[in-house]
Amino acid sequence: MKTHGFKLKLAGFIISVFFLTSSHIFALQSTSTISFSKKELSFEKVSGYDVVKHSGAHFMNKVGEPALPVRNVYVALPSDAQVTGIELVSFDLEELSGRYQIYPAQPPVPLKRGAKPGPFVQPKSSIYNSSEPYPKDVVSYVGTGSLGGHKIAMLQVCPIQFVSSEGELRLYDRIEFNFITISEKQPPRAILRSRTAQSVYDQISKDLVINSEDVGKSLNYVPPPGDFFEYLIITNDELLSSFQPLADWKTEKGIPAVIRTTSWINSNYSGIDLQEKIRSYLKIAHQDSGTVWALLGGDTQVVPCRHVRIEFETYTEDIPCDLYYSDLDGSWNYDGDSWYGEPEDSVDMFPDLFVGRAP
């Protein structure tokens, strides 16, 4: 029998665990809690189906499967923690009143002139005729990245489950969880960084994660004498003199700035093309010289961009992406093919440098 307004509290099981044989597996001591309010839900009808929205969430996008709201959640981790799974400590579950038939996710439509939606994709019978809740896991581990030396885990949380055979929607009002982790070697971190620059990374990390109190305290970096510059301008020889007043002004304001030309980088650093050479130099400048801000001085004819591969279902396109110069972890081409930025290339999407372009 269906009971509307029913609430359930459960505790103590593990979801999405990738088991490793190690004596050093442990759960982080601090728990994280995510709350969702029924007041933030809204409903509408589209083509006879129900569309459920939740404030701050986007939609699950597996074509033909229920387009339920899902939220990206970020959690700060100790710098030596490697995530192997998630322990769901407890949750509050409420069944929403009414009967629902959730709109099936449709293929994306490119945001360019002339693009039109394709034919309607029918709901998958294996899900829409099932008595099993969808999705099975309401909390999924996506990956881990680094932002200014802070290790941050990325999760996808779906606050609503759909039981199609019953037309039921279940709302998770509260979810409490721990990470299952093992200890790993700490990633490399910039050896030079001013207190001001570190405070910028700290604040961005605190604003992003749900456990801001666990973001590591700023280290009191004191830059020693030597090649220390926080602001880097990259341009060509012809435009060097045009950007010199900006570099001088930044330095006078207390942010040491230098200019490097593409010809100098091309002659002094290795890589398969100029883009890779520029990125290699940015890694060194960030790690050894305290660089926090980088300005690409000129359009792509002056400082070339990296084109990255975008794929979804049958849609494929290569787009310009200066995040390649900002997110310095990995190579952006882990599988070594001709396309950068694919899911299998392990791009964490967190900026290590603040990069702008002055065309």
TrEMBL record:
Pfam families, per the entry: Peptidase_C25, Propeptide_C25
Gene Ontology terms: biological process: proteolysis
Record's protein name: Gingipain propeptide domain-containing protein
Keyword field: Signal
GO molecular function: cysteine-type endopeptidase activity
Taxon lineage: Bacteria, Bacillati, Saganbacteria
SUPFAM superfamilies, sorted: Caspase-like
Residue ranges constituting the Gingipain domain according to the UniProt record: 231-359
Residues annotated as domain Gingipain propeptide: 28-218
Gene3D superfamilies noted in UniProt: 2.60.40.3800, Gingipain r, domain 1 (3.40.50.10390)
InterPro entries: Caspase-like_dom_sf, Gingipain, Gingipain_N_sf, Gingipain_propep_sf, Propeptide_C25
Organism from which the protein derives: candidate division WOR-1 bacterium DG_54_3
Top-level lineage group: Bacteria
